[in-house]
Design brief:
CATH architecture: 3-Layer(aba) Sandwich
Structural class: alpha/beta
Length: 114
């Protein structure tokens, strides 16, 4: 089966990106096509690759996942993956597909993907 989603991971912590990649690797409907560790590199990657799904941390070294969303000029699905529950309402106000708290379990990711 061909992947349904072409996704990138945006998180400033390398270990967090690796953990998320490991969880996502069990889902054949997702192909991870890139990673970024800040808003600028994420914006460049999104504009180059045109993924249809972004897994996005909220706090990104002086900027935020919300800053990134303001810079993207086309629609794509995004899932916030963060250690902070206090941004959940704001995330859904900007039409997040889901809001996941770290660490993300495979079972919780399954609910997000379906």
């Amino acid at each position: 089966m061909a992947p349904k989603y072409k996704a990138i991971i945006v998180d400033d912590e390398k270990l967090a990106r690796l953990d998320l990649r490991n969880v996502l690797s069990t889902f054949e409907e997702i192909e991870i096509v890139g990673e970024a560790n800040n808003v600028s590199s994420a914006e460049q990657l999104i504009n180059k690759i045109h993924p249809n799904l972004v897994f996005l941390d909220i706090q990104l070294r002086g900027e935020s996942g919300f800053d990134l969303l303001n810079k993207i000029d086309y629609e794509l699905d995004f899932v916030f993956v963060t250690a902070f529950d206090k941004y959940a309402i704001r995330a859904f106000e900007v039409n997040a597909h889901d809001y996941l708290l770290k660490p993300v379990s495979p079972e919780r990711m399954q609910n997000t993907i379906k």
